């Protein structure tokens, strides 16, 4: 507590006048972090007190079926004392009992400030599936160990995914039963408890159906012209009503010659007519030999039965991340499945996509027959990289995602993982490492690398942002130099990560700096630095925790100029953009030099002499 008071007193004072003081900003941010730690400790103390009350008032009472039983009365005490609703009071009691009985190690993480009270509800709800006491103890220990080992804050989605990954692997049978029950409980409801003549319409359905429905509403609402006065949310509400009732959506711009192209009733615009839902799983889960969890873009971790249901649907296309990967543990020769996959890849590459069309919109042109775990089908690669192995990404890049919002369900096989979670194959195709960039443009990642980065990251890589990976931009962590590619960031796995458009712009047009490098255990570490130099840790983990085989996928290393080549280049004055990018590179090197990551530290890129870098665009 004394450290907290000292941090607050040193950081909070009279308002600064003039330019911000970097040291003062750092002190204030330290105070914010100290307040967070104190909030966690007080929340733990509150849960401890409520659990003690439960022991005193409820545990000693026999179970009964009365509405006003001892548990309800304790909830009423907590609710009245804190001016809460009865539901919230009973929820606090349930969380306190869960921390005491099922999650004692997680409770200690709350006490020590590793997580906050907001995280408790997520952990408690995602571990309710565990009924066996031994399994509950193991899950509690693994979640707590992960929270302490992976430094940095946990967003709601990443914490949920981590808990689901652990629970799904520990007790897949329980997950299967709960999913079946949830599927049977789906429904639609109308909430008229709103003001000013408004009501809310909601429903529950499978995650993929919900994504398809939502993307359909978004695409129809986007047909209105720029002069339409409605907010985006209001346009989407009107679009949903039009789709549900079979009426035609209308633009409300009021212009005599409105440029909007509105489709007929019960239909979507041609450019938005296909919606792709990306699902990632390992091969053993797909063929039914294991029940490892999978990942659905825009949703998170899901169960093995769910992904197999998706894979069995008529409109699903199954594509491996690494074509022709060889099975390990044998002679090292490629498997029969790998040979079939490569043969199908060559045939698809010879046919290619439809002229002027996107591969994702042309996936029906191939008719290979039934698709099973042993029959992998590929769409044709883009013409400018026809010789490159296909990654399985059958949609356009995120830079133009708005022009081809996606329409199908795509189950993918990532790094194959066995039931224990360790890789069971060498993720290198027979032809060698996968290409890292297009042959015609070293700035553009290959389709294999594009898909790999999106699978690895799962979301926008800024802590707290939950933008789905297939909706974000792929950004060069170290700025790419278009005039002299050997001087700037490289197009490789460690050189790229996903950022939503807002955070991409925040980095590109302000003084924020991000970095990405490998830690001693091979885990990808991401950090941000504020304009004042305050270090903020990135997401604690990514999808390599869910798919360990991703760590074994290999890409060709882009060519990089030597230090002597850089020194011999002719000199000229820097532009503002070039100077900013050079400063960022220099700051990253200084940060890496000062950072004590431990033995085995390896930076993302080699150090170079930052001389003239020209004007690289963002």
Q: How many angstroms separate the termini?
A: 45 Å
Low-confidence stretches: 326-427, 561-569, 598-618
Spatial arrangement of strands, main beta sheet: 5-4-3-8-6
**Share in β-strands:** 5-15%
Structural class: alpha+beta
Overall pLDDT score: 75
- Count of individual domains: 4
Would you kindly provide a written description of the structure presented here, covering whatever features stand out?
With 618 residues, the protein is of the alpha+beta class. Strands 5-4-3-8-6 form a five-stranded mixed beta sheet. It has a three-stranded antiparallel beta sheet with strand order 14-15-16. The protein contains 18 helices and 16 strands. Residues 46-313 form the DUF222 domain. Pfam families: DUF222. This is DUF222 domain-containing protein.
Topology:
Elements: H1 2-11, H2 22-57, H3 70-82, H4 86-101, H5 104-111, H6 117-126, H7 133-149, H8 156-170, H9 172-184, E1 188-191, E2 200-203, H10 207-221, H11 232-245, E3 275-281, H12 283-286, E4 294-296, E5 300-302, H13 304-311, E6 316-320, E7 325-327, H14 336-351, E8 407-413, E9 425-429, E10 437-438, E11 441-445, H15 447-457, E12 473-476, E13 496-499, H16 501-508, E14 513-518, E15 524-529, E16 535-537, H17 563-568, H18 576-594
Parallel strand pairs: 3-8, 6-8
Antiparallel strand pairs: 1-2, 3-4, 4-5, 7-9, 10-11, 12-13, 14-15, 15-16
Helix pairs in contact: 1-2, 2-3, 2-4, 2-5, 3-4, 4-5, 5-7, 6-8, 7-8, 10-11
């Amino acid at each position: 507590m004394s450290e907290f008071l000292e941090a607050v007193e040193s950081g909070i004072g009279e308002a600064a006048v003039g330019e911000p003081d970097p040291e003062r900003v750092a002190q204030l941010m330290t105070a914010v972090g100290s307040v967070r730690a104190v909030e966690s400790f007080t929340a733990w103390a509150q849960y401890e007190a409520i659990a003690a009350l439960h022991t005193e008032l409820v545990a000693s009472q026999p179970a009964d079926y009365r509405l006003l039983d001892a548990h309800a009365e304790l909830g009423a005490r907590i609710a009245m004392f804190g001016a809460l609703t009865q539901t919230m009071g009973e929820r606090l009691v349930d969380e306190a009992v869960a921390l005491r009985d099922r999650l004692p190690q997680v409770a200690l993480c709350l006490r020590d400030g590793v997580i906050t009270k907001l995280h408790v509800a997520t952990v408690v709800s995602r571990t309710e599936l565990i009924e066996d006491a031994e399994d509950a103890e193991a899950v509690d220990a693994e979640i707590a160990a992960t929270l302490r080992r992976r430094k940095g804050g946990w967003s709601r989605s990443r914490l949920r995914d981590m808990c689901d990954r652990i629970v799904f692997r520990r007790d897949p049978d329980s997950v299967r039963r709960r999913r079946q029950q949830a599927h049977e409980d789906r429904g639609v409801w109308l909430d008229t408890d709103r003001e000013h003549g408004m009501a809310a319409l909601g429903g529950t359905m499978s995650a993929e159906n919900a994504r398809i429905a939502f993307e359909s509403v978004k695409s129809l609402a986007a047909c209105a012209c720029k002069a339409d006065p409605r907010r985006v949310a209001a346009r989407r509400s009107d679009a949903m009503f039009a789709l549900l009732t079979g009426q035609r959506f209308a633009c409300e711009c009021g212009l005599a010659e409105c440029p909007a192209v509105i489709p007929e009733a019960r239909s979507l615009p041609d450019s938005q007519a296909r919606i792709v839902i990306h699902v990632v799983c390992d091969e053993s889960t797909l063929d039914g030999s294991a029940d490892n969890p999978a990942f659905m873009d825009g949703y998170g971790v899901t169960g093995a039965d769910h992904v197999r249901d998706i894979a069995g649907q008529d409109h699903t296309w199954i594509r491996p991340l690494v074509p022709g990967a060889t099975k390990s543990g044998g002679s090292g020769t490629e498997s029969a499945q790998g040979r079939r996959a490569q043969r199908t890849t060559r045939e698809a590459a010879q046919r290619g996509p439809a002229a002027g069309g996107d591969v994702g919109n042309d996936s029906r042109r191939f008719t290979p027959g039934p698709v099973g775990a042993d029959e992998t089908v590929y769409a044709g690669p883009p013409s400018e990289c026809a010789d490159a192995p296909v990654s399985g990404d059958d949609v356009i890049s995120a830079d133009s995602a708005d022009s081809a919002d996606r329409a199908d369900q795509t189950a993918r096989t990532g790094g194959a993982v066995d039931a224990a979670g360790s890789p069971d194959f060498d993720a290198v195709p027979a032809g060698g490492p996968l290409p890292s960039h297009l042959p015609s443009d070293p700035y553009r990642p290959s389709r294999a690398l594009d898909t790999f980065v999106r699978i690895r990251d799962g979301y926008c890589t800024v802590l707290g942002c939950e933008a789905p990976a297939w909706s974000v931009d792929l950004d060069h962590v170290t700025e790419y130099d278009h005039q002299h590619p050997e001087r700037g960031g490289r197009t490789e796995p460690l050189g790229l990560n996903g950022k939503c458009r807002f955070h991409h712009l925040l980095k590109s047009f302000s003084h924020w700096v991000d970095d990405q490098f490998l830690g001693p255990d091979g885990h990808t570490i991401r950090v941000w630095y504020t304009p004042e130099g305050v270090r903020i840790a990135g997401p604690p983990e990514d999808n390599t925790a869910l798919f360990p085989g991703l760590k074994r996928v290999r890409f060709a290393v882009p060519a990089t100029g030597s230090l002597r080549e850089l020194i011999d280049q002719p000199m000229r004055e820097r532009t503002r953009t070039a100077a900013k990018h050079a400063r960022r590179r220099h700051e990253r090197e200084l940060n890496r030099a000062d950072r004590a990551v431990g033995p085995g530290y390896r930076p993302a890129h080699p150090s170079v002499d930052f001389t003239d870098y020209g004007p690289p665009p963002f």
